[in-house]
UniProtKB/TrEMBL annotation, chain A:
InterPro entries, A to Z: BPD_transp_1_N (IPR045621), MetI-like (IPR000515), MetI-like_sf (IPR035906)
GO BP term (any one): transmembrane transport
Region called Disordered, residue ranges: 312-347
Chain ranges passing through the membrane: 12-30, 104-125, 137-158, 178-198, 232-258, 278-297
Annotated Gene Ontology cellular component terms: plasma membrane
Organism of origin: Pseudofrankia asymbiotica
Record-annotated ABC transmembrane type-1 domain positions: 100-301
Mode of membrane association: Multi-pass membrane protein
Name assigned to this protein: Peptide ABC transporter permease
Alphabetized CDD domains for the sequence: TM_PBP2 (cd06261)
Subcellular location: Cell membrane
Chief location of this protein within or outside the cell: membrane
The entry's keywords: Cell membrane, Membrane, Transmembrane, Transmembrane helix, Transport
Automatic annotation (TrEMBL), chain C:
Residue spans crossing the bilayer: none
Key words, A-Z: Signal, Transport
Family note: Belongs to the bacterial solute-binding protein 5 family.
Signal peptide bounds: 1-28
The name this protein goes by in its record: ABC transporter substrate-binding protein
GO molecular function, one term: peptide transmembrane transporter activity
GO cellular component terms attached to this protein's record: ATP-binding cassette (ABC) transporter complex; cell envelope; periplasmic space
Localisation per UniProt entry: Cell envelope
Main location, first listed in the record: other
Every Solute-binding protein family domain range: 92-453
Length: 347, 332, 542
């Protein structure tokens, strides 16, 4: 067991390193360097003098070959030092740390709302006997994955801030300011959780043990909640892990719409200003969160589902192989109804 | 939101995971995983197997199929309308999307201006119609980039196998660990602004999904009996690839491409909403919504109606993808 | 209006910075006065409360010596005091940190007597040496500090006469320097802040002696200030002596005009910058006050790259000017009260002359000029000459919400005479590159300044000559007006310069800048200072 944990940890670190490298390569494609952009051409008379530009270039390593720069930055990154933001001149790590709490609050609440609504929709849709209700509920997730998040945000602002003055249209002021953005952010995870959960619930309800339980006289609700849900919740857990990376990324758009402070808005500003150290820091942080959450889920998965035994030979649970999620369809996925549980006939 | 790519993939992952569990395999790494995946695939629907046998269109069946699915019919209609708008905008409107009557600015939707007019008195409907060309172009580029690069990588990985496969798939794993939108943003930072650059950034973020699906399909087909047979009678590798592997593996990848289409519409519009897309006054959909934000307080239609257009387009392509994927095959 | 003099040997630098900022830089005054206050004076002013002010943008810097954009000046102005202040109503320069001053007859030496007992918020005292250090550091701040650097052009040295007395010397007459000392660009920061690098000052802010102190800056999101207690050296224009009324100021960056408007209506914020024309009625309807004031200086306009074909042809430049319907642009896009440009200086600038006859809209004449220049209308509605289309790219910066719609209208209007226009939006960070590199067809921008010497910094070929204007009589006239001590004679020279620029159509002025703020009902005494920025020391909330 411990060998397995250790192996997964090493894998996670390797993937994180590789993610850093990929990001570095992508951003190094940039023609020119941010120092020149920042200083403009002011160097010729009265802008920043050439010596200062040279110093800045040196500071950022732009006078070095790519490989030297890469290892220089990598060593620093290992110590948690992602360099200095070109546009604000503050250490990237402190820029990100400052911006993290509001984003965590936003994504945390967004995920919670998503789970609550997604779960409720799935349970209700699979529980109800009303065909129209089931169809209506099951079509919600399809809608949820098809709307642009920023547009949902703007519609909510329109309605709840402009027409009915219920919530503020922007800002970080307390819980009231958090509601609209969190609801906006919750649309996607809610829809996906509802899809997965509804599908697994239906599968579980069709299993012999559920049928048996019902035959033995267990109430429908009891079978639903006690038996089916317990089995159905695992795929939903997996998707929740996958969604964390997604949520952080979507915060870029949502925080922009609501003019909220946070990591997302910093990212958008950094992209606009071509502030490479910040963009790199954020992307690597996104990968870090994603990898960590999925590692944790991987590790607790066997505890939740006794059917998955951790091989003594150091092999992991069957469902995945590397530190990352076996996402896009290790194969079978595709042939299942694509994004949405088919509203109607497929269910 | 912005990047359902990996999310869509994720659903599949979760489902795939479930299926694999069901199969109960404590499979080893590498090929065993592929076998498991293939097994899972068969559980759900083996419809695609010798695909060549299904080329003939069964019209009555198609009619029945559509009749029971008014939503699907509607989806097809929407997509056709959008494609027409992209290529022949004059079919819908004769108004100039860039030329307005300033004195008639901020008029709400009416018989004359279906989507109202904007801050310079331009017809918003004309702008949305003409914007379809830009948005569709970006989306097609994005899907093509993902399809060609991702599909190519997956094909090589699946067909060549061995260490090549290991290397490619490890890289794909890494790409998957970076949230799609972050990846696109990093690429936009590096490449700069513009419709095409945004499209490429979006496409590259989806490469990993295509590589995975393509590889899995190739592995599945490769091990099928008829392919084994072809090889055993001495067929060249390229002929096996071209005649058997590719045509059969393509089905799933095309379904993914359809799905990715909706995903890319959303991703492209999100990036242009953030201001990284087409320069004004080009009426790219995300840009339209974004520029309407300044007038949220006095002109709701500037954001609402272009947004509804995006929603209708994405809903429709997703619905079609679903039909292509499972329903058509399972319907008897 | 007032005028002011700011001046300065304007260096090209000023021009650069200025354009950069698009919306206004310095300035002076307004047309109608001033103090827009908020409410009946009968209610008793009381201390306390936090004022929340929504602005549209953030240039990424909280050093008053390095910013020029209105949205950033609103907040950073509160952090520093200046040597002098300027009365927005009369334009008179009055004491602030300097209780008195002398100017030599040739306007080359300025001696300031500092108020005793002034301290910076880090506890260090204001001394003559600190002032000298400030003025010597400003020109070295680099790209962003070019306003201040411009005012200090020709700086020959500072003499510390005693702790409270400083003499500033210039190589040539610099009559506008006194007014320049009243601007935020020459606001005084502490010795510790002077030592920092420009980037550190931008990101961390500076220590000033002002009525408010920076407490937190989150780039492109918010700027928080709190009251400085024990503040006792306010400008002689301040109504209240001692500390400010407000406990704290929160400047929030809210890019969408509609969201700013709705937030003011719902009371989430107390004041907003850059009110959009479309929102005026709604704001007035909800009881908010609108405060507007015109900015002096160079109006928004199209500045040609005069060395690049086809702009080397004066007929093409003139035709473009004639094809622009300024009134339509003003009516469609800009706040009520905004005036179309009637000269290369806005009507609130001293020595402005009305040249509207030369800047009228005349589409037919534009067409015939282009025909005469050999640009013939093609079947696609675009003019061509020797097969090449008449096409130009307007480069602009997104620092005001009105830029994009205004330029889209310009685009439409030029299309109507067969000129194809592309709009290219750049980030502010790229501006110096563009201005010094000359890689553009046409630039869109303005420059707020209350002295006509701005013309020299913009259009003299002796400076940066961003617009690649050929050397002509204009250079001589601009040099003469800068050295001319007699106001009447100088005005004549300035008039001549305006005519030369307009008649040669080196640039096409389009619209004057009018700053419009929305202020909540419960906010009182929110005043424009002389440069149309706000001074919040006397402001209070009920």
């Amino acid at each position: 067991m411990w060998r397995y944990v250790l192996r997964r940890l090493v894998q996670a670190v390797v993937v994180l390193w590789a993610a850093y490298t990929v990001t570095f390569l992508v951003l190094d494609l940039l023609p020119g360097d941010p120092v020149s952009t920042l200083a403009g051409a002011g160097a010729d008379s009265q802008g920043i003098d050439p010596a200062q530009i040279a110093r800045l270039k040196h500071q950022y390593g732009f006078d070095q070959p790519v490989l030297v720069r890469y290892f220089h930055y990598l060593t620093k990154a290992l110590r948690g030092d992602f360099g200095v933001s070109v546009s604000t001149n503050r250490p990237v790590s402190s820029v990100m740390l400052d911006a993290l709490p509001p984003t965590l609050a936003l994504t945390g609440l967004g995920l919670a709302i998503g789970i609550a609504f997604g779960g409720a929709i799935a349970l209700l849709a699979t529980y109800t006997n009303q065909r129209w209700l089931r169809q209506a509920l099951l079509s919600l997730p399809s809608l949820g994955v098809s709307v642009p998040g920023f547009w949902v945000g703007l519609m909510l602002v329109q309605l709840f801030s402009f027409r009915i003055r219920l919530f503020p249209a922007f800002g970080n002021d307390g819980l009231r300011g958090l509601i609209l953005p969190a609801v906006t952010l919750a649309v996607l995870p809610g829809a996906m959780i509802a899809q997965i959960l509804a599908k697994s619930l239906l599968t579980a309800l069709a299993e012999p043990y559920a049928q048996t339980a019902q035959a033995k006289g267990a109430g429908r609700a009891r079978v639903h909640l006690r038996h089916a849900l317990r089995n159905a919740v695992l795929p939903a857990l997996t998707i929740t892990g996958v969604l964390t990376g997604q949520l952080m990324a979507n915060a870029v758009v949502i925080e922009t719409v609501f003019s909220r402070n946070g990591l997302g808005r910093i990212t958008a500003a950094a992209v606009t200003a071509q502030d490479i150290p910040v963009v790199q820091g954020v992307v690597v942080f996104g990968a870090f969160v994603f990898i960590t959450v999925n590692l944790v889920i991987d590790l607790v998965y066997p505890l939740l589902d006794p059917r998955i035994a951790v091989g003594s030979g150091g092999r992991g649970p069957s469902r995945r192989r590397s530190g990352t999620v076996d996402t896009p369809a290790g194969g079978g996925a595709l042939t299942t109804p694509a994004v949405e549980p088919a509203a109607g006939s497929a269910l | 939101m912005t990047r359902p790519t990996t999310a869509v993939g994720a659903i599949r992952a979760a489902e795939g995971a479930g299926a694999a569990e069901g199969a109960g395999a404590a499979e080893a790494a590498g090929a065993a995983e592929a076998a498991g995946a293939a097994g899972a695939a068969e559980v759900v629907g083996a419809w695609r197997e010798p695909a060549t046998a299904r080329r003939r269109v069964d019209l009555p069946r198609l009619g029945r199929f559509l009749l029971h699915r008014p939503g699907l019919v509607l989806a097809v209609i929407v997509v056709v309308l959008v494609v027409l708008a992209a290529f022949w905008p004059a079919l819908y409107t004769s108004r100039d999307p860039l030329l307005g009557v300033p004195a008639r600015r901020f008029e709400g939707p009416s018989g004359q201006h279906w989507f109202g007019t904007d801050e310079l008195g331009r017809d918003v409907f004309a702008r949305v119609v003409h914007g379809a060309a830009l948005s569709l172009k970006a989306t097609i580029i994005a899907v093509a980039v993902a399809f060609v690069i991702g599909g190519g990588l997956g094909l090589v990985a699946g067909f060549v196998g061995r260490w090549v496969e290991d290397v490619i798939m490890r890289v794909v794993d890494v790409l998957l660990s970076i949230p799609g939108l972050f990846m696109s943003l990093a690429l936009v930072t590096a490449l700069g602004y513009g419709t095409v650059k945004v499209a490429i950034a979006v496409g590259i973020a989806s490469v990993a999904s295509f590589a995975r699906v393509m590889r899995a399909e190739v592995l599945k087909v490769r091990q099928a009996t008829y392919v084994e047979a072809a090889r055993s009678i001495g067929a060249r590798w390229y002929s096996v690839l071209g005649r058997h592997v590719l045509p059969n593996a393509m089905g799933s990848v095309l379904v993914l491409a359809t799905l990715d289409f909706g995903v890319s519409v959303l991703a492209v519009s999100a990036l242009s909403f953030l201001g990284y897309g087409a320069a004004p006054p080009a009426p790219e959909w995300g840009t339209l919504i974004s520029s309407g934000r300044n007038y949220l307080a006095n002109a709701w239609w500037l954001t609402t109606l272009p947004g509804l257009t995006v929603v209708a387009t994405v809903l429709s392509t997703n619905r079609i993808a679903r039909a292509l994927d499972g329903e058509w095959a399972t319907q008897r | 209006m007032n005028r002011s003099r700011q001046f300065a040997p304007a260096r090209w630098a000023v021009a650069v910075a200025a354009l950069a900022v698009g919306s206004t830089l310095l300035s002076a005054c307004g047309s109608d006065g001033s103090s827009a206050d908020g409410g009946p004076a009968s209610a008793a002013a009381r201390p306390g409360n936090t004022l929340t002010f929504a602005v549209g943008s953030d240039v990424g810097c909280v050093d008053p010596q390095q910013v020029g954009s209105n949205d950033s000046v609103y907040s950073t102005r509160q952090i520093v005091d200046s040597l002098t202040d300027q009365d927005p109503d009369t334009g008179k320069i009055v004491p602030w940190l300097a209780q008195s001053w002398e100017i030599s007859a040739d306007a080359k030496a300025f001696t300031f007597h500092l108020k005793p007992g002034v301290t910076f918020s880090d506890g260090t005292p204001l001394t003559a040496q600190v002032v000298k250090d400030n003025f010597e550091a400003i020109p070295k701040l680099g790209a962003l500090a070019q306003l201040g650097a411009g005012y200090l052009g020709g700086y020959a040295g500072g003499k510390v006469i005693d702790d409270q007395t400083i003499e500033i010397d210039f190589q040539q007459s610099n009559a506008q320097f006194l007014q320049a000392t009243s601007t935020f660009s020459l606001g005084i920061v502490s010795a510790a802040s002077v030592q920092k690098t420009p980037q550190e000052r931008c990101g961390d802010g500076v220590i000033g002696s002002g009525p408010f102190v920076l407490s937190k800056y989150v780039p492109s999101q918010s700027i928080s200030l709190r009251k400085r207690t024990g503040y006792a050296w306010g400008s002689s224009l301040f109504a209240k002596s001692g500390d400010a009324y407000l406990d704290a100021l929160e400047f929030k960056v809210v890019p969408e005009a509609g969201v700013r408007t709705s937030s003011l209506q719902s009371g989430q914020v107390d004041a907003i910058g850059a009110v959009a024309q479309a929102d005026e009625a709604a704001l007035e309807g909800s009881g908010a006050q609108l405060q507007a004031r015109a900015n002096p200086g160079v109006p928004f306009g199209l500045s040609f790259n005069n060395a690049k074909a086809p702009f080397t042809d004066p007929n093409v430049r003139k035709a473009i000017g004639l094809a622009i319907n300024r009134q339509q642009i003003v009516d469609t896009v800009f706040p009520t009260g905004t005036k179309p440009a009637t000269s290369i200086l806005s009507h609130t600038t001293p020595s402005y002359v009305d040249l509207s006859a030369s800047l009228a809209f005349d589409k037919a004449k534009a067409g015939s000029l282009l025909d005469a220049a050999g640009w013939r209308l093609g079947a696609d509605g675009i003019r061509r000459k020797d097969g090449a289309p008449l096409s130009l790219t307007i480069t602009w910066f997104a620092n005001a919400a009105t830029n994009q719609p205004a330029l889209e209208l310009v685009q439409q209007q030029l299309k109507a005479v067969g000129v194809q226009v592309e709009l290219k939006q750049l980030q502010i960070a790229q501006i110096t590159q563009i201005l010094t590199g000359g890689d553009f067809d046409v630039l869109w921008g303005n420059l707020t300044r209350a002295d006509p010497d701005i013309l020299r910094s913009q259009y003299s070929t002796k400076g940066l000559n961003t617009y690649k204007i050929p050397a002509t009589e204009l250079d001589t006239v601009l040099a003469q007006q800068a050295a001319e001590p007699d106001a009447t004679k100088r005005a004549a020279l300035v008039e001549r310069a305006q005519r030369l620029v307009v008649d040669n159509a080196y640039v096409t002025p389009v619209v004057e800048l009018e700053t419009e703020l929305g202020v909540g009902k419960n906010v009182h005494d929110l005043k424009f200072e002389a440069s149309t920025r706000v001074q919040l020391h006397d402001t209070w909330k009920s």
